[in-house]
Design brief:
By secondary structure, the chain is of the alpha/beta class. 30% of the residues lie in helices and 13% in strands. The chain contains eight helices and eleven strands.
C-alpha cells in the first residue's frame, strides 16, 4: 500500500520524500473464500513485535499463522500489517532527527481498516473484528482496543507491553527509538535521520507526547477507566515469567493489568506460567485466544496453553 501517514513531515523539512511511502500488509484468506464469495468473514488483525516486521506472523519459524490457525475456531481473514520496527502503534507527536513522524495509528485505524472492508468480503462491524499482537504488538492491540471499542469486539495480547509509565518499559522504548527509530524493514535502519537522539524523557515524548497524555494511551490506565468493559468474555492476556525466570518484568506488568480488569469485573482469560519472551509460547497462545474468542463457551474453562494448567483466577 502507499500512504503519506508513515513518514509525515514534522518539525522541519524532512530528509526524505514522505508523500507516498510503500507499506506492506500481508493477508491470509480462508480456504473457502473464493468458493463462497457471498459469505462475509470476520477479520483478525495481528500486530507484530518490536524490531520485527510484516513477515513475523507468517514466517514458519516464528508466527507460522497458517499452521497455527488451521482447523482452529477462527474461520476468517487474517490481516498482518507493517507496524515499524519501533513504531509503537502510535501517532508520534514528536519527530525523528530527520524531521518526520510515523503516524501508525492513523494508518491502521483510519486507512487500513476501511480499506480492508472496502476490498474484501468482511463483517463490517465491531462484532466482526478482533485485534491481537505480540510484545510491542501486544501493546498495540491493547492500545487500539481501548481507544477504539467501536471497531473491535475481541482482543488478545501475548507478552504485551502494558504500562509505559514503568521505568523498565521506558528504557526499552527509548532504546528502540535510537536503535531502529522510524525504520521499516531495511529502509532507514542504518540512517541516523530515522533515529531519535536525546534522553529517555525526550524519546518517550517523541513517541507518546507529554506524560499528561499517557493515561489515554496506557493499557493499565485504560483498564482503570473501564475502556475494556465492552470486551468482557473476549479478552485474553498471556505472559510468562513466574518462578523468577523468563520475562519477569512483562509477567509482572501483565499481572497488574489482569488485577485491574478483575477489580472492574471485566471477564477475561488470563494465562501465566514459567515462560520466556519467545515464539514457542506465542504460537500456542494465538491458538488458545481464537478458541476462547470464537469457540464454544466451554473454551473459557480449557487449560491454558504451554502446559500452564488452569487460567489464573
Amino acid at each position: 500500500m502507499t500512504t503519506s501517514a508513515i513518514f509525515a513531515a514534522h518539525g522541519g523539512t524532512p530528509s526524505i520524500n514522505p508523500v507516498q511511502v510503500p507499506v506492506r500488509v500481508r493477508i491470509l484468506l480462508p480456504e473457502d473464500y473464493q468458493r463462497d464469495p457471498a459469505h462475509p468473514y470476520p477479520v483478525l488483525y495481528l500486530l507484530h513485535g518490536g524490531s520485527r516486521d510484516v513477515e513475523q506472523w507468517s514466517k514458519t519459524d516464528e508466527g507460522n499463522v497458517t499452521a497455527n490457525l488451521k482447523d482452529s475456531a477462527f474461520r476468517g481473514i487474517v490481516v498482518m500489517p507493517e507496524g515499524g520496527k519501533a513504531g509503537w502503534y502510535s501517532d508520534w507527536p514528536g519527530h525523528t532527527d530527520g524531521y518526520f513522524a510515523p503516524q501508525w495509528e492513523t494508518f491502521h485505524i483510519q486507512q487500513l481498516v476501511p480499506w480492508i472492508d472496502a476490498n474484501f468480503n468482511t463483517v463490517r462491524a465491531a462484532s466482526g473484528r478482533a485485534v491481537a499482537g505480540v510484545s510491542m504488538g501486544g501493546y498495540g492491540a491493547l492500545r487500539y482496543a481501548g481507544r477504539h471499542p467501536e471497531l473491535f469486539s475481541a482482543v488478545g495480547a501475548f507478552s504485551p507491553g502494558t504500562d509505559i509509565f514503568d521505568p523498565g518499559a521506558q528504557s526499552v522504548i527509548a532504546n528502540s527509538t535510537w536503535q531502529a527509530g522510524a525504520s521499516i524493514l531495511w529502509t532507514g535502519l542504518f540512517d541516523g535521520k530515522f533515529r531519535v537522539t536525546g534522553d529517555t524523557p525526550y524519546r518517550m515524548a517523541t513517541v507518546f507526547g507529554p506524560p499528561s497524555t499517557w493515561p489515554g494511551q496506557n493499557p493499565v490506565n485504560l483498564a482503570l477507566d473501564g475502556k475494556y468493559a465492552p470486551y468482557g468474555g473476549k479478552m485474553a492476556l498471556y505472559a510468562g515469567g513466574t518462578g523468577g525466570t523468563g520475562e519477569k518484568e512483562i509477567g509482572a506488568m501483565t499481572a497488574a493489568l489482569h488485577q485491574d480488569l478483575k477489580d472492574r469485573a471485566v471477564t477475561h482469560r488470563y494465562c501465566r506460567g514459567p515462560g520466556d519472551h519467545a515464539w514457542p509460547y506465542w504460537g500456542p497462545e494465538l491458538k488458545d485466544f481464537v478458541a476462547y474468542a470464537y469457540g464454544p463457551a466451554t473454551g473459557s474453562a480449557a487449560p491454558c496453553p504451554n502446559g500452564w494448567g488452569p487460567q489464573t483466577p
